[in-house]
Amino acid sequence: RIQILFEVMVDSENIEVKVVSNKAAQEPAPPPYTDFDPNHGTKEVKKDKEEKRERWGNHIEFILASIGLAVGTGNVWRFPYLAQKNGGGAFLIPYGLMLLIEGLPLFYLELAIGQRFQKGFLKIWDEIRPYFKGIGIGQLIVSLQMTAYFPMVMCWCMYYFYLSFSDPLPWTQCHGDEGNISESCCRGDESKYYWYYETLKVTQTIEEPGDFVPSIVICWFLSWFFTYICLFKGIKSSGKAAYFTATFPYFVLICLFFRGVTLEGAGQGVKVLFTPDFKRLGDPTVWVDAAGQIFYSLSVGFGALILFGSYNNVKNNCSRDAMIIALVNCGTSVFAGIVVYSVLGFREHKTGVKVENVEGGPGLAFIAYTTAVAEMPLPQLWAAAFFFMMVLLAIDSEFGTIEATIGPLRDYEFFRRIKKELLCLIVCVFLCVLGLPMSLEGGLYIFTLWDTFSVALPLVFIGKGVNLTLIQVRTTAVKYV
User: Measured between alpha carbons, how far is 69 from 376 in angstroms, rounded to an integer?
Assistant: First the structure.
């Protein structure tokens, strides 16, 4: 039996495949490159350059930071809504298939190439092939766009966390002078009215930007201040912060789970979430939603996973890590769905509003969930716990995407001359100013446009680009076997 071993050695000039048989193994050939270590197949880096590469404090920091990057607010308000809308329990079939076909392979790939090359994604794609550098530039642009608008979610959660200490909760009653109260509020939609007209002060059309909303502006600046504090030392600070920001949301989620499943009507809500409607599997949009949720939830395509992997030791078992992180992320989505829909079942029991009558995205958290919490004993406690959890989920995801915009830049000599703290400050201030218009009264329209068009489509092209890159590398390798 002849065993064939081949190694794909990539540099900016060529791809070489080395074929070794058992017979030839007795007389090993000298390596084709003098700077290549045949023991583990990676380029040796000079000692002074190796010391400059940041490292995780330990492997636990990497796991927690990666889980924090993947598990975000979308696991709480996007997945449950998509599951209920797209066939309940039947949605888990396309969701699981997309995890195996799309999510896990790309997740593992990004961790692996980052760990192999020990560089940011801009340098990596340039090293594989110069004309692949556009993939890295695309990932950088998408990360910048994501970090420009996503902190607004954290901003809203911070404001509602502050409101949670009010007695009574402000979204449980109508505001304004008598005779000047919205009809929607009088119909019993106090939470909806408070969200749109008291919190955001939404204008009638996108052509009316309105004035800045003071409460939102303050929370916007605070969100960026906390983000900078946790990031200015790079992974040395964000890795330590992950011990709290990645673990405490699970403590809160478990507390909300036991509170939720013990409420009257909780079973009805969970039943609505998981009752399968297999006819929905014939609808292509169900499969598109499943693929999109996997793509978003695992944070594939942003480049952050490549950067996180580059801070690992080259011999780290990244396949094991990819499996653990992906399964934890998807398990969290299902668990959060149970928590949210048990509370929505309680809402139906108390108010008569059907569980199915719920909006996805922010509407689920700031309208449906707040209505249900208001009916609970100790509503301030559960509201504060929920929105504090949402703040932590948002800021943890923000860490990774901002790090993905800063880390690759430091692979270039020009940016290495700038102190890390100063470079982080420049990027944070730039993104803070860029997203500030979303604090206007018409800012919700800007947020919706940005969320709908700035990230989803580019990620699809980036994913296809990564796949085509792999096909070319693999095809070139096979020619030499």
Answer: 31
10 and 473 Cβ atoms separated by less than 8 Å: yes
Largest CA distance in the chain: 94
In whole angstroms, give the CA distance from residue 308 to residue 54. 10
**CA 421 – CA 233 distance, rounded (Å):** 6
Confidence band, pLDDT 50/70/90 cuts, at residue 106: confident
The alpha carbon torsion through 220, 120, 332, 391 (nearest 10 deg) reads -10
- Measured over the CA atoms of residue 223, residue 228, residue 229 and residue 231, the dihedral's sign is positive
pTM as predicted: 0.80
Task: Give the pair of three-digit tokens for residue 338.
Answer: 């149970």
Contact indicator for 260, 342 with CB cutoff of 8 Å: yes
- Whole-angstrom Cα distance, residue 216 to residue 218? 5
The residue that leads in pLDDT, 438 or 356, is 438
Name residue 440's beta-bridge partners. 212
3-state helix/strand/coil string of the chain: CCCCEEEEEECCCCEEEEEECCCHHHCCCCCCCCCEECCCCEECCCHHHHHHCCCCCCHHHHHHHHHHHHCCHHHHHCHHHHHHHCCHHHHHHHHHHHHHHHHHHHHHHHHHHHHHHCCCHHHHHHHHCHHHHHHHHHHHHHHHHHHHHCHHHHHHHHHHHHHCCCCCCHHHCCCCCCCCCCHHHHCCCHHHHHHHHHHCCCCCCCCCCCCECHHHHHHHHHHHHHHHHHHCCCHHHHHHHHHHHCCHHHHHHHHHHHHHHCCCCHHHHHHHHHCCCHHHHHCHHHHHHHHHHHHHHCCCCCCHHHHHHHCCCCCCCHHHHHHHHHHHHHHHHHHHHHHHHHHHHHHHHHHCCCCCCCCCCHHHHHHHHHHHHCCCCCHHHHHHHHHHHHHHHHHHHHHHHHHHHHCHHHHCHHHHCCCHHHHHHHHHHHHHHHHHHHHECCHHHHHHHHHHHCCHHHHHHHHHHHHHHHHHHHHHHHHCC
- pLDDT band, residue 35 (cuts 50/70/90): very low
